[in-house]
Amino acid sequence: DEGQPNNYEIETNEGEEAQAKTRPTRIRTQPSRFKDFVVQVPLSVKHSTSTSNQVTSTVRCPISNFVSYDKFSTNRKAFLATIINNDDPKCFKKAAQDARWHEAMQKEVKALEKNGTWTLEYLPEEKRAIDSKWVYKVKFKQNGKVESTRLV
């Protein structure tokens, strides 16, 4: 319709495909539920990630700009450090290299065999095994010590 304003400027270069120079814009406003509050959130902070092709990513509100550990007690800081530095294995190969996970897997298999809910069988040639996934989780006590290592 000729009466409608054109939101795009289109330029063509001798047989090349038409490309939009600008995108339509909209006015961004604060959600009405915040009208009674003073809200100051940075629109974006650029963080550069160093890779071979120097990709730059943008994070809207990096939590590191808003979180401080100054008010936590020494015990709480130790607990947080333990949880943050804990790296639960994502695959069997990594879990099998750790003695505590090896022990947890042995306990799990023994419990399944004891209950009679699981037996090892040979797979017939014409059949294909289905995948199963074990999720490895560490449960911590309040003081940061490991309470248990479990397969979930």
From TrEMBL:
Positions with biased composition (Polar residues): 1-10
Organism domain of life: Eukaryota
The protein's name in its UniProt record: Integrase, catalytic core
Stretch list, region Disordered: 1-24
